[in-house]
Amino acid sequence: MTAPAVSAPAPSLAAGQPGELAALLKRLHLANARRGYGELIERAEREHWSFHEFLLALAREEVAHRAETRLQRCVRKARFPQLKTVEEFDFSVQPELRRTLLGSCFGPEFVSEGRNLILTGRSGRGKTHLATAIAYRAIQNGFDALFATAAALIDDLSRASQQGRFQDALKAYLQPAVLVCDEVGYLSYGPDAANVLYHVVNARCVQRRCILFTTNKPLKDWGAALHDYDLAEAIIDRVLERGRILTLEGPSMRTRHLEGIDYER
After folding, report:
1. Is the pLDDT of residue 2 over 80?
2. Which of 53, 111, 161, 233 could disulfide-link 166, Cβ–Cβ 3.0 to 4.6 Å?
3. pLDDT for 132-146, tens place per residue?
4. Which pTM does this prediction carry?
């Protein structure tokens, strides 16, 4: 006759040494739980939580902390000049622009489908604000982003090309899910501007990675700004294959508190 199996004795929950729980949480890389479990235990005792309720609260706080940590890390890596949100944008000064027109830009599909956007308009109309807000919402939706002025991007890649490390430098602009290329046409660029920018745009469009441009120049003038009309046309053609243009009008958000400014003087 076979003897019945003997179950292993359950571990004693009261046998833990002081600090053992903190050490175990550290070993499991549950940093927030390790810092806050004491207060959570006190609350659970006061409110008579079940074991299930306590574990659920502990897990929720850990997940929320990790999400916030990730958000902060991605914002730092994005290198926004200033963090701007769509909630802070004053749509009342843009007579032709409504938030509904931008609705799809703030959803995860805008990034996952590799959509593009060119924001045009004179200085101070909020183009950089909106581009930053869209990129920030993408970060909130689980993606990463990178912000760079067109001048900085072109200078960086031109220098890398001269030093024989172009492909390595290019990777920094291809890896993020969202790339903001700010202020196309604001400054003068070197003679290879169109060439290096084309490499970025073409590779990202092939990979279906989102690009946001801001510019104060009509698209027909990009050729003059980038020193190559044919490549400028190829850049715009690729961007708009899966993108669109939005023009921001109205008064400058920077100087609307002043009246009667004559920009022609």
Report:
1. no
2. 161
3. 999 999 999 999 999
4. 0.82
